[in-house]
Amino acid sequence: MQLRDALDDYKRHAGDGTRFPGERRTVSGRFSGGDGRLVHVGDDGELRDFGYPLTGRTGLVRSRIGLAVGDEVAWLDEADTTQRYVGDAALVETVHETPRATVTRHDVTLGDAHLTRASVEFAEDASGDDSADGADADPADASLVVYARFAPDGRDDRVGQLRYDDAVEVYHADEHDFLASATGFADLRGQLPATFPELLADDPTDLPRDRDGDRYEEERLSGEVIADVPFSDGVATVATLLTDGAETDREAARDRLDALFSDLDSVDALREAAADALPSVPESAPARESVVADLRVLSLLSAPSGLRIAGPDFDPYYEHSGGYGYTWFRDDAEISGFLLGAADAVGLDLDDWHARSARMYVATQRPDGSWPHRVWPRDGALAPGWANARIEDGPDVDYQADQTGSVVAYLARARAEGVDVDGLDRTLVAALAGLDRTLEPDGRPVVCQNAWEDSAGRFAHTAATFLEAYSELGRHGEGLAVDALDDPDAVPGADSLPEDLAAHARDRAREVYDALDDLWVPERGCYAVRETLDGGIDDRLDSATLALAAAHRSFDAVGAVDDERLDRLVSHVETVVDGLYHDTDEITGLIRYEGDGWRRADQLSEKVWTVSTAWGANACAELAALLAAHDDPRAAEMTARARDLLAHVSPGGSLCEPTTYLPEQFFDDGTPDSATPLGWPHAIRLATVALLDDELPQFADRAAADDD
Q1: Considering only CA atoms, which of 698, 694, 658 is closest in space to residue 676?
Q2: How many angstroms separate the CA atoms of 635 and 627, rounded?
Q3: Cα–Cα–Cα angle for 642, 645, 647, nearest 5°?
Q4: Rounded distance, CA 685 to CA 617, Å?
Q5: Which whole-number Å values give the CA distances from 640 to 589, 653, 691, in the listed order?
Q6: What pLDDT does 267 receive?
Q7: 96 partner at 20 to 30 Å CA-CA among 133, 292, 520, 634?
Q8: Residue 481 predicted with pLDDT over 60
Q9: Model pLDDT, residue 473
Q10: Which Gene3D superfamilies does the protein's record reference (predicted)?
Q11: Measured at the alpha carbon of residue 441, what is the angle toward residues 439 and 446, in degrees to the nearest 5?
């Protein structure tokens, strides 16, 4: 997104009650991708690239597609439009109904290339009947009009174009972007971006403009092109390709485009190519539509490295958020863990995904055994953030210790599942030393930032991630030894580790388990969200504390959860779910925490979050499994709660968009908001479906009876 686009959106949406001006929203439309490049196909058909964090290439920042008949252009974003995914893959079909014709588009992103195949079917009166739209034209004169603005290297200035018979190359320095047509160009021109007077005007500027003969330089000195693409047998296909000039020369780029046009000359060919980007989902999979949607989203958000962005970055100027197009190790490791746990239960082959994740966690670990705030997913390099206390000088308060806990829990499980990557044992040993250094003598983690990144203290959620990490190391850490470290003296705290690291981890897990009593609030029947900086207890309800359910299930495998703790966990989960439950005429789900004021706009109350609602469903299911293992009859009721909450984020639920996407948040009137789709709740949904089907099927009849 360029500043010009942000200002244009600001003009269009300033003062809106549920839209934050200056953003590039993705709450409608669908994405295509799965192998790096990420292209948004708006519900009006506009194409935009969102894959910079995944590939380092900016690509398309604006586009429009129109149908030209004679001298008149009908822009497809102004037509009645319907959209869907074709099958399981990320192949997007968009149907535009114009007065003259129906245009059916199929969009697919393959690697760094994106193809748009448009077929046109003219109405019977499209030729020679002035009553159709006031013009007399021959459909044989029709062409597809493509307006595309590229920003190579993220630039909209100092950009140039090279022209070919069937392609145009837009470049700045390293990034070279191509627009090509299978049928060549009937006409091709450029234009300069919005001018200073246009930017300063009160009204937004409609683009593209008409040709201006006085601005000869605009034909070559900008990233904006307008092309007329002829139809052949009613079909026109255009493609864009993003390249690094040092890696792919222009001849190779043009050969690649020619091969794509030759090989992908039908909708069936596009469908088959798109299907290769996603793992196959068995027909017998539970809640198959939901599972397919979750895998599609998680694939879309993944870089070739295996790291994922949290969601498409709708606010790159940080006007209303801190950005989303980065990898947080909390979200990413939680997603990895959910996938690891669900794969066999659902019948998925995700071995490559598991290994890629583990390999990148090994590569991005810091020398002190921790992980940084957030990184660029394409290569793991440090990304902009505000919680890098472990890198900067000064106190460690601005550090998110839960991220390290989440990574350790995943890596320990992955090791047990046979994921074998270089350096895994070394990473786990260093991480164990890092966990110990951030555990206070009282058995709870140090003061740090919380999961929501908006306050500091000693949090129940952070303690839950430590309990889970230590428990998983204690369960799966046999054979780990300090001598796995290349240089033990270089890892702070490694010299104090004992010989039996698995037993040590189990002892630490017991310490955290016992210390959680310090956060119990009997008056509310729940665990406090945190101990504050002044030593007080913050007893607000917070959905992040629902992580205690899964953490205790991990601990039960190494230390046994006692009856009193089971009672407290049941009380805690019920209190949090009931207390955060929010129901309107349009939506039902859980708010994030009591008093949450973020991105409310004109709404007076807290907004519902999909991750909190999905977390509630998963916590109820995890607790049900724990109760069932203890022959506790409350497992049935907890399973019913899980299914109820899961329904709200499942296809057909009020928090699941018709696109099958889960936006991060919703306003009370049902308007979706913020990052869409958000990967974390999709992974939680997938894991919860698998858990309910695989470990709690005995309670399915009870749930069906309750529904009746």
Answers
A1: 658
A2: 5
A3: 105
A4: 8
A5: 15, 16, 13
A6: 97
A7: 292
A8: yes
A9: 98
A10: 1.50.10.10
A11: 35
